[in-house]
Amino acid sequence: MTNISKFILLICFCYTTTSSASAQELRSPDNNLTLKFSLGNTGSPVYQLSYKGKSVIKPSNLGFQLKNAADLLNGFEIADTKQSTFDESWKPVWGEVKIIRNHYNELAVTLKQPASDRFIVVRFRLFNDGLGFRYEFPQQKNLNYFTIKEEKTQFALAGDHKAFWLPGDYDTQEYSTTTSNLSEVRGKMKAAVTPNVSQKTFSETGLQTPLMMKSKDGLYINIHEAALINYSTMSLELNDKDMVLESVLTPDAIGDKGYMQAPTQSPWRTIIVSDKAGDILMSKTILNLNEPTKFKDTSWIKPIKYVGVWWEMITGKSTWAYNDLDNVQLGVTDYSKTTPNGKHAANTKRVKEYIDFAAENGLDAVLVEGWNEGWEDWFGKTKDYVFDFVTPYPDFDVKELHRYAASKNVKIMMHHETSSSVRNYERHLDTAYKFMVDNGYNAVKSGYVGNIIPRGEHHYGQWLVNHYQYAIEKAAEYKIMVNAHEAVRPTGLSRTYPNLLANEAARGTEYEAFGGNNADHTTILPFTRLMGGPMDYTPGIFETKISAYNPENNSFVHSTLARQLALYVTMYSPLQMAADLPETYNKYKDAFQFIKDVAVDWDDTKVLEAEPGDYITFARKAKGTNNWFVGSTCDENGRTSTVNLDFLDANKKYIATVYADGKDAHYELNPKAYVIKKINVKKGAKLSQYCAPGGGYAISIIEIK
Amino acid sequence: MTNISKFILLICFCYTTTSSASAQELRSPDNNLTLKFSLGNTGSPVYQLSYKGKSVIKPSNLGFQLKNAADLLNGFEIADTKQSTFDESWKPVWGEVKIIRNHYNELAVTLKQPASDRFIVVRFRLFNDGLGFRYEFPQQKNLNYFTIKEEKTQFALAGDHKAFWLPGDYDTQEYSTTTSNLSEVRGKMKAAVTPNVSQKTFSETGLQTPLMMKSKDGLYINIHEAALINYSTMSLELNDKDMVLESVLTPDAIGDKGYMQAPTQSPWRTIIVSDKAGDILMSKTILNLNEPTKFKDTSWIKPIKYVGVWWEMITGKSTWAYNDLDNVQLGVTDYSKTTPNGKHAANTKRVKEYIDFAAENGLDAVLVEGWNEGWEDWFGKTKDYVFDFVTPYPDFDVKELHRYAASKNVKIMMHHETSSSVRNYERHLDTAYKFMVDNGYNAVKSGYVGNIIPRGEHHYGQWLVNHYQYAIEKAAEYKIMVNAHEAVRPTGLSRTYPNLLANEAARGTEYEAFGGNNADHTTILPFTRLMGGPMDYTPGIFETKISAYNPENNSFVHSTLARQLALYVTMYSPLQMAADLPETYNKYKDAFQFIKDVAVDWDDTKVLEAEPGDYITFARKAKGTNNWFVGSTCDENGRTSTVNLDFLDANKKYIATVYADGKDAHYELNPKAYVIKKINVKKGAKLSQYCAPGGGYAISIIEIK
Fold it and tell me: How far away is chain B from the Cα of A427, in angstroms, using its nearest Cα?
């Protein structure tokens, strides 16, 4: 080789080295997903993602605007890159499957910003079903304490996708999902922002996560975050000219977006991708991006099937409040001297009826709301010292109910409505948890209804994210399980803190009594809200016309009765409520049998069919058994669901009990028309089942031993 | 009498009746003060105050602007009036005198606002030395929960008074007092607002309370508040055209000024008046307006004379921090693996030296600052989890020091610097107090340096007033005494909560090391800051040139040594620090003898002479003895103080030890020139004592038995 040739070769090699020093590529284990990272002209970090050769995320910027400090947006050099592989399996304490495989290829890029002498790390983990990436801020001389003005993470989309979206909001997720193209978001935002007692939208094109999308060529894309700890919740701002989403963090009372102390990191930003809708539902990436649990003993953590003194108040039949005063002062008002309103449901006698029902039907617990002093004036008054979480109403006998429940092997589920008076809750937290332990409660439903106190903070800001975490970790010290309502939507933290059983954090069944949910609501939620963790959806309403309980309430549940059964399978949660009243269930014992039988913990899960907004059919294997449960939900159109029971064991026989819509069923016009049939099935059996508009079916498949 | 005469008589009578139905008059028990209340043309409540016929407060408005509700400013009718008298005496747990007489005439005016069907009560209490009045909001149908937009209490002054003022500020009181006419406030405000790590002025003519004034014809007037509980701190806005002061409450993070639930009340607004300056100092009106204590057992509350590991850090000789890291994480940073900086004062050996000194000199306690993890990066970083209040540095042996101190009958005073991370403090409060009890601590100095977290709140807003109160009440549950620094200035709450021994809440001795205080500072503070309660002024600095401790610090204490002794008498507090270092005191044992001898609790107090800004001389009788202590402080001019010891008992003989400035003493040029002389005295003895510029004298008068 001549010198010139060598020289040219050297140049080519250097160029290659230089290119590979600036442009990084990472592939998923199965090679379907490709991540590329590079620096733009101004030294800005840029990433892009493609799936089977199709662009999912076009070149998108990364970085931060800081307050009173130079931004971390450009002027970077790549100081180091490291690639690695991880492949381990782990067992969740509870879950949809017994074993979860955590398999990814990782790229960690150390970026140095010479002008400021600071460096950050961007870590990418590419799974077969998606990408997670986060920012890391190692301890270093020139980056110590810093305040985030805004995170500037872009997700440049490859098209005007169909999206299943909620308005971006710093305080509520309780909106109905709007299904539209991204280009239509702006025009539909006004109608989408329905009233809520605590809400704060930030943009005409602001969106919440999890955000579910489907491209025109059939790619399913879900954007969310994982491991949201000590950081502000991410929403997305849509630039609907370019179809670029950009992160928007939730501000605090003075407009700052995050207070950071190095060494620290952001949550993982997640992009789950597949050409199969079912893969989105089955993704464990968000869980996998969370840290393993450090809990030494998890034996006290058990899934719960429960009923509750709740729906009768939601419908307006009963009240949380004991009397009709409009002004009470804890520790001052002598409730025993007031006139009860005669509609207070959480009284000893009534609670015992629920306990009896739970015991008769093998349910684990009875939630009781309205047991404690303070409900007369708790709502909408920005009241600071609103509850003390330990003082019962005169008609709720704590000790007697403890004894009675224990004698029936039923737990009472505690209720801590905080009324968003968060300092007040924290002041009482140890006392409240100790009260629970002393009186036999091992699980609490907490709530954050109303605007946050301290005023100016938002439900999803760093301040409150820190609080929810504090409540969960302290609960674990007391071996208490938590079901937090109106709190931040989950981001897979249950892996690390398995006592966080569920959240609400979306528009749940209660809204069926507040005007109704869309008939397709539950064909969407698993693709959106449930991506980060279980939802306490509280299904199981059999008496769908609310006027049956409260003549003044004309709402109705937009669901057939059969579909209500299906939800125990399609809306995964380790905490499942049979939300209707015992006396109603007793009128439909044959249908209720499914709720008695259905498991709340699983060894395996399959998506039999799914299309967001249209239908979802799951099959799940009950933990420690060979029994399966199938559930199917569909939209307002109704359909015929055809599934193959090929997940059954080849050498076993089963009895399948099918709870289905009657042929004339309709979620509004004829919701209670259901049929139950028993059939023998074995592996490979095909089922073709009619689903009414707003309907579905549920099947228990019990091994014949 | 003719019919016409009767008719005229009737009209006169009705007119008189009508007048007296609208105009109310109240007199002090000695008749010197007259309060008049009436309704103005628009039904606005108006009050005025005069003293010995001279106007003190010209007709001034009262009322409130509410948020999202009709104002409570006008449209009132007088629905009821009640006059009463109260005359009782009570014994404070600690104080300047043994018995306090509470003697006032009261007028309670019920005002109804027909347009809104609401009513309030304005209650006036007229003492011989001043007026207190407050608003009350009884429980009623149309006034339940309400938010204050602003309180609109006026104090229309009768002239352009000389005022001793601090800039109105929502976060700090650590300004030097400016002495000027009210008309000069605007022009002097800029210079008055010196830098502070947490400050928020609100107006070019905004003022803090207590506000001390002197009219041109020699009337002393002091405005403040009493019983500030669950309400926002009041500052004053001066309209310098009309010489009208108006209340300005401290806003919260969203600009609201108070969240109220009826039945409730505002604090008392107080106007202390006399033509004798000494009467202002002796006033007990603010204490009297507070509720009696409900504490059943107060035996654990005892005044404290203490030294402390503190001044050596304030001067810069030592550090609070253990090492020189700029970033620590509690529970993560392993301090035992870090390199100590060699200047950490709060180590076991050094603390024992202070304990020895305290034991040798009959002092009660040793304050130790910098004993706990977290001081390396606590300041100015808005750090949330900044201290845990229980984890000592590696060189501070909690158990050993507990044992050692107890063996010497000395207490260690706990230190809780919160760094204004208030949620963090509350989260740790029970644990921190329990740690104190378990380790022999019965008193805590707390601090709130820096901007408040939750961000957006202010040191003096309702949110923080509520927090300080929470900390005091919880401390009482643990039998802990509290000395709160950087918290709200006191308003007499120690009557109700006698475990609140003192606050800082003003510019104290530490500022002598941060550039110095004015030489007349202590001739003003008793007329201003001390009106609401004791100040932990921490006097007793003998080595007044800070460079003796830290060559890099050129500050000096603007005081002679003799005046430092006087401050133990002139700056009343049940908690008194001998702030200098033991090794310095050991060089001046003769002068230190006064600090050993002076009492911290009193049976009687006399003002021998006083003029705000010029000089104050107090005499106090030590509790349970016949001994007296005299202290005199003067301004930068120096003077000769002539006093009469006519308060001594007639039939007793005493030895007076006089600690005075040397003839050439000067606070800057020759501060340590002092002379000590012993003389026999008896009742009626006259003393004529030279006081140097920035000087004074201290006298112990011990009974010869």
Answer: 7
In a domain, B127, yes or no: yes
Residues, chain A: 705
Tokens of B100: 């306090």
Q: A58: domain CATH number?
A: 2.70.98.10
Whether A261 sits inside 8 A of B466 (CB atoms) is no
Given CB atoms, is B637 within the 8 Å cutoff of chain A?
no
Q: Which residue bears the tokens 């006083």?
A: B610
Q: Distance between CA A232 and CA A248 in Å, rounded?
A: 9
Q: Collapsing DSSP states into helix, strand and coil, what is residue A702? A: strand
- Per the prediction, chain B carries an average pLDDT of 96
Residue with tokens 């060494």: A263
A387 within 8 A of A418, measured Cβ to Cβ:
yes
Burial (CB count within 10 angstroms: exposed 0-12, middle 13-18, buried 19+), residue B570: buried
**Considering B246, B486, B510, B512, which one is annotated as catalytic?**
B510
Any domain includes A247: yes
Nearest residue in A to B381, CA atom: A145
B185-217 per-position pLDDT tens digit: 999 999 999 999 999 999 999 999 999 999 999
Average pLDDT over residues A558-564: 98
Q: Report the alpha-carbon angle B533-B534-B537, nearest 5.
A: 140
Locate tokens 């003192």: which residue? B502
| DSSP-assigned letter for residue B229 | -
Predicted confidence (pLDDT) per residue in A88-144, tens digit: 999 999 999 999 999 999 999 999 999 999 999 999 999 999 999 999 999 999 999
Q: Does B142 contact chain A (CB < 8 Å)?
A: no
Domain range for A134 is 3-288
Average pLDDT score over residue span B250-261: 98
Beta-carbon-side half-sphere exposure of residue A450 (alpha carbons within 13 Å): 18
- Angle, vertex CA A24, rays to CA A23 and CA A25, nearest 5: 125
B377 touches chain A (CB under 8 A): yes
Closest Cα to residue A334, out of A346, A322, A345, A344? A322
So what's the pLDDT on residue A668?
A: 97
Q: What is the pLDDT of residues B655-680, one digit of tens each?
A: 999 999 999 999 999 999 999 999 99
DSSP, res B317? S
Whether the pLDDT of residue A610 is over 60: the answer is yes
Domain assignment of residue A232, yes or no: yes
**CB within 8 Å: B426 and A423:** yes
Name the region of B135 (left: φ>0; alpha: ψ -120 to 50; beta: rest): beta
Q: What is the pLDDT of residue A11?
A: 47
Annotated active-site positions of A, please?
510
> Which residues 6+ apart lie within 8 Å of A61 measured at CB?
A40, A44, A45, A46, A73, A152, A153, A154
B426 touches chain A (CB under 8 A): yes
Find chain A residues with C-beta within 8 A of B326's C-beta: 144
Packed helices B348-360 and B398-407: angle between N→C axes, nearest 10 degrees: 10
- The CA-based angle B145-B46-B260, given to 5 degrees, is 15
Burial of B297: CB neighbours in 10 Å, binned 0-12, 13-18, 19+: exposed
pLDDT attached to residue A22 = 72
Amino acid A340 reads: P
Amino acid at A207: L
Q: Does residue A595 sit within a domain? A: no
State yes or no: pLDDT of A13 exceeds 80. no
Say whether B237 sits in a helix, a strand or coil: strand
**What digits encode the pLDDT tens for the residues A237-256?**
999 999 999 999 999 999 99
C-alpha A630/C-alpha A642 separation (Å) is 12
Q: Looking at beta carbons, which residues of chain B come within 8 Å of A381?
A: 144-145, 261
Domains identified in chain A, total number: 1
ipTM (interface pTM): 0.93
Of A66, A145, A330, which to mutate for an interface test with B (greatest number of B Cβ within 10 Å)? A145
